[in-house]
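Narrative of activities, Objective 1.

The group set out to show that a structural description can be obtained from nothing but a protein's sequence at a throughput compatible with the screening campaign. Below is one input-output pair from the validation batch, recorded exactly as produced.
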Amino acid sequence: MSGKGKEQTRLVRMLIASCIACALASPQAQADENLWGYTYGSETLPKGGWEFYQWATWRTGKAEGTYDAVDLRTEFEYGITDRFQASGYLNTVYQNINNTGTNAFAFQGVSLEFKYALTSPYKDPIGVALYFEPSYSRVDKESGQSGTEYELEPKIIVQKNFLEDQLIAAVNLTAEFEWERFPDNAPTEREL
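Output recorded for this entry:
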C-alpha cells in the first residue's frame, strides 16, 4: 500500500474511533428505537426533541476487480413541531477500488430530510407521513470519480401498530429522482 493509502486508512480508523469515543464518553447519550434499517416509521420527534445518528454502511464486491467502500453519514434530527421534523446529514465515503486505483477518503456531500406526520400510529387507526429528502453528492458511489449528483427522494410512509404497539408494520412508497454527471465533463444522466 502506498504512503497516501496508508494515511487515508489511518484517517478512516481515527474517524471511526473518534465517533465511538464520543458516544461512550457522553454521560447523556441514549439509544432510541430504530426498528428498521432503511424503512422509516411515520412518527416524528416532539417539538424541541433532537437525535444524533452515525450511520456506517460497508459495500463490497463487484463483478470484476476488488471493491470496498464505507459510507459514513452523520445525522442531526430536530423536532420543529410535534408533527414536523427536519434532519441534516454530512456524508463521507472511503473507497478502495482496485481496478481504478482509487483508495481515498472523501467528503461526499450533504442531505436534508423533512418529515411531516399527517396522522399518528398511536392516536389514529394508521399513521401516515410525508417525507422529502434532497441530496447533493460530489463523489460517485461506484467509481469514486469526482462529479455532481443531485437527488430528490419523496416518500409516503404508512405505519400500523398492533397488540398495544408491540407489533409494528410499516410501508414506504418511494420514488428517487437523480441527475448525475461523473466525471464533470460527461453528459448529465437522469434516473428514476
